[in-house]
Amino acid sequence: MNERDSEQVAQTFADRGYTLTPDEKEADAILINTCSVRDQAEQKALGKMGIMGKYREQREHVVFGFMGCMAQSRGEELFKRVPHLDLVVGTQKYHRVFDYVDSILSRRLETRMDEVGAEMLTGRVEEEVQGDEIVKVNLDRVISARVVDTEDEEGSQNTIKDHIPKEQQQAKAFVSIMQGCNMRCSFCIVPDTRGRERGRPISDIVEEVRSLVSKGVKEVTLLGQIVNLYGRTEFPKVDGKSPFVQLLEAVHEIEGLERIRFTSPHPIGYRDDLVAAFTYLPKLCSHIHFPMQSGSDRILKRMQRPYKNEKFLAICEKMKAARPDLAITTDVIVGFPGETEEDFQETLACMKMIGFDNSFIFRYSKRKDTPAAEMEDQLDEATKERRNQELLQMQGEMTSAKNAKLIGTVQRVLCEGPSKSNKETLCGRTTQNKIVIFNGDAERMTGQMLDIKIEDSTGYTLYGTPEVHQ
Ligand code: SF4
Question: The pTM is what?
Answer without folding.
Answer: 0.85
